[in-house]
Amino acid sequence: MGAGHHHRLYLPGDSVVHRLPPQCKLLAVLAFAVVVVATPRERFWAFAGYAVLLLAVAVVARVPPGYVARRMAIELPFVVFAFLIPIIGMGERTTVLGLSLSVPGLWAAWNILAKATLGVIASVLLAATTEPRVILIGAQRLRLPSLLVQIAMFMLRYLDVIVDEMRRMRVARESRGFAARDFRQIPVIARSAGALFIRSYERGERVHLAMLSRGYSGQMPIIQDISASARQWSAALALPAVALAVLGLAL
Amino acid sequence: MTSVHSLEVKQLAYAYPDGTQALFGVDLSIARGERVALLGPNGAGKTTLVMHLNGILTAGHGSVAVAGTPVRKDTLKEIRQRVGLVFQDPDDQLFMPTVRDDVAFGPANAGLRGEELDRVVKDALDRVGMLEAADRPPHHLSFGQRRRVAVATVLAMAPEILVLDEPSSNLDPAARRELAEILRSLEVTVLMVTHDLPYALELCERSLILSGGVIAADGPTRELLADTELLAAHRLELPYGFAIPAV
Amino acid sequence: MHVPDGFFNAVTSISAGAVAAAGVAVCLRGARRELDDRTAPMAGLVAAFIFAVQMLNFPVAAGTSGHLLGGALAAILVGPYTGVLCMAVVLLVQAVFFADGGLTALGVNISIMGIVTVLVGWGIFRLVTRVTRSRGGITAAAFLAALVSVPASALVFSVLFAIGGTAPIDPMAVAAAMGGVHVLIGVGEGAITAVTVGSVLAVRPDLVYGARGLARPLILRGAEGESTTVGVPEPVVATRRLKPFLLGGVGVTLVLAGLVSFFASSSPDGLEAVAENKGFLGQASDHHFGAWALADYGEVGGIPVGVAGIIGVGLVLLIAGAVAYAARGRNKIKV
């Protein structure tokens, strides 16, 4: 997981995609994911169409393929799982290279791989072209409860701080010869987790004090707001719209 | 002095809810424009005192007044604008996603918006020399830069008095000097809580020693620091090899 | 265990999304009551903490390792409402920023990894601590709560899978496999949660939400040396809210199971149905899919899926209750 480097999720740039308001991009990616998930899996070329669409977005946004590929590693555990499905799946079986595989299982594996991969790429492109804090502003625009947005904001702000603290604790453990080999080491790890919780909690209290000191009274002042024009909306929603058209053609 | 003091603390006593008493009748006053150091060993009650200055803790006994306004429940909003508290760990203070948002947080809570807010933010960042970092996230800055931004966040509220908790801690020598230059250039009352005695000497004409929950000494910094017995009695020490330079 | 896009069909994903949204909405209000204007910074920091501990891999058995889910831990440390919020935000951030877990599967992920783990964990924790409020009892309760919360989450996952999963695997096999692995992971989760809670309890007992009311009574000393003790008021919050919270949780889970399976079984998948009606599906594939569509959406071992879902949820609750009851007996003897 790329935790602790979340600022590197964003690739600064000045493309059309970068400049679109975050709420438009968020909604577009979500709608795109829904269309992908709702596509019957035997419509092969619909999936090819979606892939081409995402490729077009990546080209316009100048997101290098290597970056997308690295970020896709997050999907690996489920890829492994997907390869297991045909082996353990039920139903009619076929033999491929001497291996007995379930036909519906093969379909399911293809289904999960295709949809999950398209979903991951769409999310990666969103994160690569939009700063995390800006995504949150977009989410607030889309009526995500502001308290939830604030919690996410504080979480992103302090993620690095806390992960760094955890890393320092691990270095301290390991420099005294500790290695997590089996379950007997769980208490040591857990005590660090306890210490980390106390630090996090106390920091939360101090942050709250700092907020109070500057006049906080329960509501975050809305300092930045990004409004979107009809043109920007239509530009962003072109992605799911074209995807839907592809789906329509495929059916 | 007949004018209203920036800060006036009278007979302040406070015990924590668990019964531990931290302050036993603190008296101090700071005139407008003064830069005062509050010195004291760990556990002397420095932080507890600071928490009273903007009403995070409320006095068990006695009173605190800022520019003549008493610190009370109904004056909290005004008090918190007038007392600019700079925390020891800038990470606690810089909680917003970007430097600009963070500096804007206080004035925005006070109701500023639009161009006026922008002007205040730019001005505050300019005074600490961090204008070019406005759009960066705080965690990308060096520690010294973060502390300067933390100062800007309270400067943006145009405070009557700036209260700094251990401003020199964790700073390398260059960052330490830069911060000193900034603090000297500000025309604002400063209360600096520290046990960095040379820093107090460098920046503050006057010092107070808080020890055992009371003000144990109050006078020109140079004189207090020259009194080795006084320092020893309150667990304060000048760094090795440091001597009070002759005037 | 973050479910990606395409793992569940669209209807299941969307229904779970509605349930997750409702659950989070309830918790937003609840957390505001618990933390008032501290909610945003406190929950944010705790969410960052949960995110960090989820990166802790702990060895389970030879060669395998698991990582913390953290739902039960969050519930015990900061209370169930804030706990759900923290888990939801962690999952939201993971999905949107790290592409970990599909956007359309966010509802499923929040439901099974956030709401279920917190609910089951908190419920068991409260049941056990109702009997014993000693420090050891709280640690034991934390262990049990976390231990059960993981397989419970895996079971709910299996139920959802039986209802709206897209892979042709025998739901019972999934349940067995998921349950087996997650009992193991649950042991690790239980151990790490118990020690974590115990170590916080040793240093800052006031920070453990689930241990409020553990404080010793105050002693008042008179002038002649006589002393009286003043009882510390019970944490009204926790005890009084347990019942509605649990009932609400059971309700939400049942609604989730019933609703989703109703839709899933009556209209397998909107688009697939359209495709079939219009005769777009090819001859061969029609045959394949027609054959297992029944198995997938219709029945599991002769029981309608809607009923199966509810039975599954009931089973989870029953197991949880039984374990808690057993623990309760043991603790009684100890105390």
TrEMBL record, chain A:
It comes from the Bacteria. It is a multi-pass membrane protein. InterPro entries: ABC/ECF_trnsptr_transmembrane, ECF_CbiQ, ECF_transporter_component. One of its GO terms (biological process) is cobalt ion transport. It is found in: Cell membrane. The chain crosses the membrane at residues 20-38, 44-61, 73-90, 110-130, 142-159, 233-250. GO terms for cellular component: ATP-binding cassette (ABC) transporter complex. Coiled coil: none annotated. Its main location: membrane. Keywords: Cell membrane, Membrane, Transmembrane, Transmembrane helix. This is Cobalt/nickel transport system permease protein.
UniProtKB/TrEMBL annotation, chain B:
The keyword Iron does not apply. Keywords: ATP-binding, Cell membrane, Membrane, Nucleotide-binding, Translocase, Transport. The keyword Signal does not apply. It holds the Pfam family ABC_tran. InterPro entries: AAA+_ATPase, ABC_transporter-like_ATP-bd, ABC_transporter-like_CS, ABC_transpr_CbiO/EcfA_su, Co_trans_ATP-bd, ECF_ABC_transporter_ATP-bd, P-loop_NTPase. Its main location: membrane. One of its GO terms (cellular component) is ATP-binding cassette (ABC) transporter complex. It is a peripheral membrane protein. Residues 7-237 form the ABC transporter domain. It is found in: Cell membrane. Transmembrane segments: none annotated. GO terms for molecular function: ATP binding; ATP hydrolysis activity; ATPase-coupled transmembrane transporter activity. One of its GO terms (biological process) is cobalt ion transport. Probably part of an ABC transporter complex. Responsible for energy coupling to the transport system. Part of an ABC transporter complex. Responsible for energy coupling to the transport system. Belongs to the ABC transporter superfamily. This is ABC transporter ATP-binding protein.
Automatic annotation (TrEMBL), chain C:
It is found in: Cell membrane. GO terms for biological process: transition metal ion transport. InterPro entries: CbiM/NikMN (IPR002751), PDGLE_dom (IPR025937). It is a multi-pass membrane protein. Residues 244-327 form the PDGLE domain. Its main location: membrane. Keywords: Cell membrane, Membrane, Transmembrane, Transmembrane helix, Transport. One of its GO terms (cellular component) is plasma membrane. The keyword Signal does not apply. It holds the Pfam family CbiM. The chain crosses the membrane at residues 6-28, 40-62, 68-93, 105-125, 137-163, 245-264, 303-327. This is Cobalt/nickel transport system permease protein. It comes from Nonomuraea jiangxiensis. The lineage of its organism: Bacteria, Bacillati, Actinomycetota, Actinomycetes, Streptosporangiales.
